[in-house]
Amino acid sequence: MSAHFALVIHSTRTFEVIEFDGHASASLGDLYDKINSPNITVVDLSSDLSVWLDDDGYGDHNAPATAIRTATATAPGNQDEDQGPDHYGTAVFTGIDSQNGTSGLTLDTCHALLKLAGIDVPPIPGARTR
Q1: How far apart are CA 32 and CA 37, in angstroms?
Q2: Cα 100 from Cα 67, distance rounded (Å)
Q3: pTM of this prediction?
Q4: Residue-wise pLDDT tens for the chain (130 aa)?
Q5: Which of 26, 33, 50, 125 is the most core-located residue (most Cβ within 10 A)?
Q6: 3: left (phi over 0), alpha (psi -120 to 50) or beta
Q7: In whole angstroms, what is the distance from residue 87 CA to residue 68 CA?
Q8: What is the C-alpha separation between 129 and 111, in angstroms, rounded?
Q9: How far apart are the first and last CA of the chain?
Q10: Cβ(6)–Cβ(94) under 8 Å?
């Protein structure tokens, strides 16, 4: 399956799967636009998965916490592995390629992340045959 997507999870627990071609400047600009903040931090959750966050979103308690607590709790170096940090704002998940560059995700990976975050995604029906 092709890895040309990024997963955007909003604080409202809504999500978008967007086309993402990797570390080209135009693609990275799309990520910055989705997060809509001048202060962005990237957290590597594993050797092949990153989450991009509004660095100011750790203190904005006016919005509901995003559905990334479980994922960030497993990040290397996290002080509070039981709970993970609360984050308020948009989170964008991307992949990491073999050269440690930013890459896209497969749709299967996006679906698995949504399931981990507790966001139900209805199955997409196949083509009808008569």
Answers
A1: 7
A2: 25
A3: 0.76
A4: 577 899 998 877 789 999 987 766 667 788 888 888 888 888 888 899 998 988 776 555 555 555 555 455 445 555 544 445 566 778 899 999 889 889 999 999 998 888 887 788 876 666 566 6
A5: 50
A6: beta
A7: 8
A8: 26
A9: 28
A10: yes
